[in-house]
Design brief:
Glyoxalase-like_dom; Glyas_Bleomycin-R_OHBP_Dase; Glyoxalase-like domain-containing protein; 17 strands; 5 helices; seven-stranded mixed sheet; single chain
């Protein structure tokens, strides 16, 4: 049984993989529902992104592989073989990166029989369009053979090595106010829920990882469990929960998110063909 953690994990961002052409078109395509801003190119030269930043400090990363990238280099990337056009992964973070060691230990203890662990953080980064260099380290869950689990089965971790507000400028550091690009035509103010569905045979393994990260679930059933997370802004809007469930027979693994909305927000918005965000209305 995993021990009760002293701090909640913080929801950092959601990853959507798109084609290079779609990435270029998204600001225009989504202008009536979500504000999209340029992110930049990543340090390894394989990917670039655009961002949807919410006032609660969570963001959606719209990521694409470089148009002229060698297919073999793409295959070597964690997300290189995944299908474009949907949510492929999601990340937690921590206010104090030193707390990650305790999470690694708890997950390893909860998965002693299977050998699943979180790898030691690997440095990464990107250059913002204004020339500011961002640095972080990431860690994903891996099995006993050191092979990463399927992306999104469990959250990966994005631990900042430069101040997080440089990577996720959801608040004006000088005034404390919200920048204009965190205001969205749909009224979206943050992420309320993350829902992860995995094949039935993977549910028990994933369950142990989540319990190592979060401690005991706040809701529990034979094929569905729920845990809380926090956000950087300290907001209490929305449910702020992750749900892990076992997919029904014949269904594929899936990650969905539900946004926090205002009374005049729509019930849902289409982000891409086949990808919809629902709203929890505050």
């Amino acid at each position: 049984m995993a021990s009760q953690p002293s701090v909640l994990p913080i929801l950092d961002h959601i990853v959507i993989l798109v084609s290079y052409q779609t990435l270029e078109e998204l600001p225009k395509l989504l202008e009536e529902s979500l504000t999209v801003i340029e992110g930049g190119s990543h340090a390894d030269g394989r990917t670039l992104n655009q961002l949807i930043i919410f006032p609660d400090g969570v963001y959606v990363e719209l990521i694409a592989f470089q148009e002229d990238l060698d297919p073999e280099r793409r295959k070597e990337h964690r997300w290189g073989s995944l299908a474009e056009g949907g949510i492929i992964d999601w990340a937690y973070t921590l206010t104090d990166a030193d707390d990650f060691t305790a999470i690694q230990r708890r997950v390893a203890e909860a998965n002693a029989e299977t050998g699943v662990t979180y790898q030691d953080p690997i440095p990464g980064g990107r250059l913002r369009p204004d020339g500011v260099e961002l640095k972080w380290a990431v860690s994903s869950a891996q099995d006993a053979s050191l092979k990463s689990l399927w992306p999104g089965t469990a959250p990966f971790w994005c631990l900042d090595r430069t101040p997080r507000h440089l990577r996720v400028p959801y608040r004006d550091e000088a005034t404390g106010g919200a920048p204009a690009y965190t205001t969205h035509p749909s009224g979206a103010t943050g992420v309320s829920r993350v829902s992860v569905s995995v094949p039935e045979e993977e549910f028990s393994l994933a369950d142990k990882i989540y319990e190592g990260v979060h401690g005991p679930p706040v809701e529990s059933g034979p094929a569905k469990k729920v845990w809380p997370w926090a956000v950087h802004a300290g907001s209490s809007e929305g449910r702020q929960q992750v749900t892990l469930s076992a997919a029904a027979a014949g269904q594929e693994r899936r990650i969905t998110i539900t946004l926090v909305g205002k009374p005049d927000s729509p019930s849902s918005i289409q982000v891409l063909p086949g990808l919809t965000f629902d709203f929890d209305i505050e």
